[in-house]
Amino acid sequence: MALTHAYHLDFPELQQEINGYPLTYLDSAASSLMPESVIETINQYHRTAHANVHRGVHTLSQTATDDYELTRDRVQALIGAAQREEIIFTYGATDSINLVAQTWGKVHLSKGDAILITEMEHHANIVPWQQIAQEKGCVIHKVPITQKGEIDQDAYQRLLAQEPVKVVALIHASNALGTVNPVKEMITQAHDQGAIVMLDGAQSAPHFTVDMQDLDCDFYSFSAHKLCGPTGFGILYGKMEHLESMPPFRGGGSMIEHVAIESSTYQRPPLRFEPGTPAIAAGIGFGAAIDYMMDIGMETIASIEHELLIEAQSRLEKLPKTTIIGSPSERIAVLPLHFEGIHPYDMGMFLDRRGVAVRTGHHCAQPLIEYYQLPGTVRCSLTFYNTVEDIDRFISAIEEGLEFFS
Ligand SMILES: Cc1ncc(COP(=O)(O)O)c(C=O)c1O
């Protein structure tokens, strides 16, 4: 039984009380916690090899560079990229998408081109496209969703066929609904019409196996802090043919081949996109996080999370005044909740008084929340280090909350 595990014991943060109650952490979709091994790896870097990368001949700098660059190999293995050079280190998923919009977009978009953005995108895969669209005179079309919380596939195909579409901004798994989209088919359809796909993997990379060869997406982005790693570090995967066509995003040291006062030439990817001193400790820590997750195995993680989802869902469905938003055919362990007559913020605050951490609000997905005409939701997001006891405590706290607000 996948639910009897001891992974929660690896996370120091979980061994504490909040407001006099054992911490019930149900907000891993916002940021997952870090296991001891990751914290220790980051400590070790600071204690023994806190040196700059890619520039020193001395031993400490070499050690830091080797450890930092090892993370690129681990990411390549995690997502099945064809080459390690297709992995760009960024400051997070948001930074990754901005990089694509501002560099690929700068070269390949022109007036009148269409960009399709689904109604369930996170703001990170909306706003950068609006910015470049404004600059270039492109048009943006919304790909609508259905009440079930799925992308309307007929509308998607219609929009692809009607317009000279250049880019599809597509979320792999929704942070607000949990929906896992049929991205493989959607990517093929986009390619058939000559469009590229910016796949937002912030909520897929942490939860199940993703394979760039199989998905064939053009770009894929995610953040370390949602995969048991530190904040301030993220990944952009891009097909080499695209990366080579892109100018640098930011300029500075390390990304150049030669600099004269009048002009410069640039390194090949990935260094072309990585100017200045990066978040070295975070990068090395993320390597340890990938090791930790791959040791457990993405399939084991997916299966624990699926069992937790089924358990939480069936318990929540029995509660009065409680609605789970959306009923997609495939979903990660994310459950958006609406409590009749209770503002999400009030319920979130009440749960916090019981030691339960959930996120409330629009989850950086305002178009989606507006579609459902809600003031926001209370989002329960479960991950592999959650337990049935977490669900027990969550349900009891909601029951108390329903009573309190009645
Ligand atoms: C689906 C999705 N995309 C993008 C992001 C942005 O990630 P970050 O804030 O780490 O850049 C998030 C973060 O919540 C997300 O859930």
Judged by helices, strands and strand pairing, the structural class is alpha/beta
Q: Mind summarizing the main beta sheet? A: 7 strands, mixed
Outline: globular
Q: From the 3D coordinates, which CATH architecture of the largest domain would you assign?
A: 3-Layer(aba) Sandwich
Count of strand segments: 17
What gyration radius follows from the Cα positions, in whole Å? 22 Å
Strands of the largest sheet, in order across it? 4-10-9-8-7-5-6
Beta-strand fraction estimate: 15-25%
Low-confidence stretches: none
| Bound heterogens, unique | pyridoxal-5'-phosphate
Distance between the termini: 38 Å
CATH topology of the largest domain: Aspartate Aminotransferase, domain 2
Overall mean pLDDT score? 97
Contiguous helical run count = 13
What order do the helices and strands follow? EEEHHEHEHEHEHEHEEHEEHHEEHEEHEH
Helix content: 25-40%
**Total domain count:** 2
> What is the CATH H-level superfamily of the largest domain?
Type I PLP-dependent aspartate aminotransferase-like (Major domain)
The top-level CATH class of the largest domain is Alpha Beta
